[in-house]
Amino acid sequence: MTNRNDETKRVFRFFWAWEDEDEGRWLAEMAHQGWHLVKSGFPFQFRRGEPKEVRYRMDYHAREELDRGEYLNLFRDAGWEHVCKYGPWHYFRADAAAGVCDIYTDVPSLTGKYRRLLRVLVFFGLVNLIGLANNLMPDHFHTDVIGLIGIILPVLAILLVGYVIIRLGMLIARLKRSSGIESGPASSHH
Amino acid sequence: MTKSRTRIIISVIDIAASAISLIDMKTKNSSDRRARALLPLTEATYWTLASLATPRHGYAIMQTVADASGGQVRLGPGTLYAVLAKLLEQKLIRRAGESMSEGERRKEYTLTPLGRQVIELECRRLESLARTGRQILLRKAGT
Fold first, then answer.
1. Residues B66-101: pLDDT tens digits?
2. I need a surface site. Which of A14, A65, A71, A90 has the fewest CB within 10 A?
3. A23 touches chain B (CB under 8 A)
4. Cβ contact (<8 Å) for A65 and B62?
5. How many domains does chain B have?
6. Residue of chain A whose Cα is closest to the Cα of B57
7. Residue whose C-alpha is closest to residue B114's, from B129, B94, B95
8. Claim to verify: residue A117 and residue A91 sit in the same structural domain
9. In terms of Cα–Cα distance, which of A52, A22, A16, A38 is closest to A84?
10. Whole-angstrom Cα distance, residue B143 to residue B132?
11. Which domain does B76 fall in, by range?
12. Nearest-angstrom CA–CA distance, A15 and B2
């Protein structure tokens, strides 16, 4: 039993940025089976433990508006354990039975999480667009392999980023319409 | 007949209310206009500002709001963080040193004069909305 706690496993699974709710549900299901998240990323790392009913939430901050300590204290005081950080994504965990309220309790701040990501993507997309326009200029244009790469790479990046932007936009619109988040304590934990 | 009378009464109330707010606005200075431009507040912003009339750290804000609203309103840490960051940026609140909570340091925040003005204006706006709304509903029931 004791050395079972040292057992770890890696799982390769990919989630898009707009699927963080699905990701949270999947992580909770893993915890239900006794696999607790240690590190996110590709792959995810889990450690074997007692099966537990927990909730996972992800938050996105590319830039730290207040300092890290203030941020983490706020979550810890509210009952959310900081599990790990994957790039700008912070992973939090709370006991499902503890009646801890959700990390976002209103629509503007919840959509704000995705809008912050959207801003970064729009910037990235624009940089690629400028690069592409530059590579297509007559005096820069080459018909060799390097010239081709200079066109294909930014086009692929723009298509990918564009797709993510559209999906995030759809998610934001859906959240605004439904406002289906737990705002009060009575809505879910009693 | 009663319908049109109700309509007249409603429009009289409307005119009176807008006249009052017009007079109200004319008497105010520019910082007041700045404060007014930030209204209406989201509920989370409203409760956060209201609770910072005295210096408090983050978790104390959550507890104060939950207590004051009788458990009706709860602020999640992600929401509160976003609200605090925005209020600091808008200079409606400022840092007010640190306090010890359960043996740990916690940064505290409190209202700036502008922040106090904003929350007071919002309280007045909501009061006048509620008053006018109630009056209209009462008149309707009476006819």
1. 999 998 899 999 999 999 999 999 999 999 988 877
2. A14
3. no
4. no
5. 1
6. A74
7. B94
8. no
9. A38
10. 17
11. 2-142
12. 61
